[in-house]
Amino acid sequence: MKYAVITGTSKGLGASVAKQLMEASVHVIGLARGKNQELENADLPGSYKHYQVDLSDIEQTEATFQNIISFLKGQLVESLQLVQNAALVSPIEQAGKQDIAQLTAHVHVNLLAPMVVTNLWLDAWRDTDLSLVIANVTSGAANRSVYGWNAYGSTKAGLDRYTNTVALEQEMLGTGHKVFLFDPSIMDTDMQGEIRSADPSQFVDVDQFKNYKAENKLRDTDVVAKVLVDRLLNEASIQNGEYYSVKNIFK
Ligand SMILES: NC(=O)c1ccc[n+]([C@@H]2O[C@H](COP(=O)([O-])OP(=O)(O)OC[C@H]3O[C@@H](n4cnc5c(N)ncnc54)[C@H](OP(=O)(O)O)[C@@H]3O)[C@@H](O)[C@H]2O)c1
């Protein structure tokens, strides 16, 4: 059976990716603090199993992924994909005015959890002939400095470097595992709502993001998810270490 493990499936992009993979007969294991009743009740060819977890809590994250690994080791797994999608944009604030607890949670969810999970994942399947696929969801913010997004830009840039480095290691080790980046560009999700609600003193470009919404420039997550899902369903087309952006599809 084909399996995909996706973080952040309670809403937004993660929920759309989960649904589309289930439509394509992939069995999805989803994670978030919240649940997703629609996915749990869906009557689709692929099943849905949810693990409630707070990815800012690294001990809880490790224990949850150990449970997922134990579950998968008991299944007949023919392909296994991991989509690390969960992330926070907050704190949106200039350095010097941030709450330390919020900053810590941000770095844990956006960067440390994906690193810890990747480490567990590659270790767990070290001695099998499964070719793993790991997609890490990034942002254009990794490559430009935006006033108020010092945390978000830094964790996404860190995730990019981490992904590229793990891809290089897997290439040199000849494992056949593929690790790549997916940039979804701007989507109509709660994360964008949070961005629009920032005060201009915290986020100088807030009006630009209000205009994206007003001018209907934010893409629907189902449209964006299809770009990633088409790629995941055609594993041979995935290049190890590649940066795959929605912007290259919708020019
Ligand atoms: N929206 C955009 O325009 C945009 C642009 C570029 C890149 N991205 C990236 O695309 C990805 C998806 O974003 P989105 O817009 O779909 O975001 P979203 O609607 O805010 O959803 C975020 C998901 O992450 C989960 N999550 C957040 N904190 C968590 C925690 N502590 N523990 C477990 N799960 C947690 C949330 O679940 P719970 O809250 O239920 O825990 C939710 O399912 C992110 O990596 C984001 O950086 C988004």
From TrEMBL:
Quote a single Gene Ontology cellular component term.
cytoplasm
Query: TM spans, by residue?
Result: none
Q: What is its main location?
A: cytoplasm
A Gene Ontology BP annotation from the UniProt entry? tetrahydrobiopterin biosynthetic process
Q: Where in the cell is it found?
A: Cytoplasm
Record keywords: Cytoplasm, NADP, Oxidoreductase
Which InterPro entries does the entry link to?
Biopterin_syn/organic_redct (IPR051721), NAD(P)-bd_dom_sf (IPR036291), Sc_DH/Rdtase_CS (IPR020904), SDR_fam (IPR002347)
Q: Which residues form the signal peptide?
A: none
- MF GO annotations: sepiapterin reductase (NADP+) activity
Instruction: Respond yes or no to whether keyword Glycoprotein is given for this record.
Output: no
Protein family (similarity comment)? Belongs to the short-chain dehydrogenases/reductases (SDR) family.
Kindly provide the name given to this protein in its UniProt entry: SDR family NAD(P)-dependent oxidoreductase
Q: Which organism is it from?
A: Gracilibacillus thailandensis
